[in-house]
Hints:
Elements: H1 18-48, H2 52-55, H3 66-91, E1 105-111, H4 117-126, E2 135-141, H5 148-158, E3 163-167, H6 174-184, E4 189-193, E5 197-199, H7 203-213, E6 217-226, H8 233-255, E7 266-270, H9 271-274, H10 278-282, E8 285-286, E9 289-290, H11 295-304, E10 309-320, H12 326-348, H13 361-390, H14 393-417, H15 423-435, H16 439-445
Parallel strand pairs: 1-2, 1-4, 2-3, 6-10
Antiparallel strand pairs: 4-7, 5-10, 6-7, 8-9
Amino acid sequence: MRSNTTAFPWIQGKWRTKEEQRVQVLDLILKIMVPAFLLACIVLSFKLGSFNGYLKLISRQSYATPLMALGAAFTLAYLAFQVVRTVLWWRYKPYPLPSGPLPRVTVIVPAYNEGAMVENALYSAAASDYPSDLLEIICIDDGSKDDTWFYIERAQKRYPDLIKAIRFPKNRGKKEGLYTGFTKGKGEFFVTIDSDSVIAPDTIKQIIAPMLKDRRIGAVAGNVKVYNRAQSLLARMLAVRFVLAFDFLRASQSIYGAVTCTPGALSAYRRKALKPILEKWRHQTFMGLPANIGEDRALTNFVMRQGYFITYQRTALVHTVVPESYQGLCRMYLRWDRSNFRESWVQLAFIFTKYRQKHRLLPIIDFFITQIEFPLTYLFLGLLMLSFFVYPLVMVKFFAGLGVITLVYMFYYIYQERDLEFIYGILYSYFAFLLLNWVQPYAFITLRNDRWLTR
Length: 455
């Protein structure tokens, strides 16, 4: 179900600009045009036989050459595992909050050049319904060059018994900010929140609930929504993308306790799970250089390889600011993809070992499907682009089929959110195919680049 924005009073009245009005008009137009476009895609797809190849996946003809066999075998494996993921997603249920006394919790908010948004993040944490005598909030200004410290100080003065403010004289990186919070915090559990994000009043209780219920769980990923979704077309597309990329994937992975990334926007960790690996995480290197990006994915790997389960809590809500420009989005994806490539290499070192007693098979299959998807996708994408020039009709068949396949994927969004915003997911699929396909291969060939890009 969609989160109730009345739980975020600091959002009310925001984004009331002419730009938002234009977006609302465009929203109305798109909600008329996109369904018409989808109807045309469905008619064209069946008329042109866009899906004939899928129907022949188990025929001998699809395995006539090694390349065709490779493509057919991978497609079957991917579709089969997608069915498995769907079943797991369907079975997923958030952990209820156990009865009994609550533990002491430390909330950590690292900030750099965040301006007024950091104050919203701190107020959302301070407004939590968690008992104040069991809560501490540590905010670290990582050498900001703007007015971030002013807003942190103002929030600290408003809640002097709750918020502790720390200021680095110069920029040290987000990992150092988190490390400072982990070492100075007194909580039995740590909750990390990005400084451009706000949480719901019950989020702190919800995010630690899985760890209170099961001692095998060492970390929990929160449910990330888009804070500025009403501000731009791109933000609306990303709001739908987040549901598919985060909720669907993490809910299915949560069933077997192997969520691959606890996001910086909102995550929680057991102190006992962090203590043995904190220094290794802090000084981690990649190809001989300090690993300064992907600190959340790296921390997840360090916790998991100790044998802990990593789960997802759908009821732990956070709204985070996303890029509203193409350039900003590409920079964010570049950083994420570089981190994923690096940490997949790290994961390879333990995923096939007995790092925990049970539930190891599905994480291995998940890892294998995810890793082989990258090279095969771009191999066959190259062949597809070549066929566009040789047989132009293939382009029409492909783009018609893409609309129909994306509509099938939108089932997950529609079931979860119950609104018409899924049309932005359709738009995103075309946007991503035409304008974002270069990002992942470029990230792969520039793995040594450790720049944050969006800071």
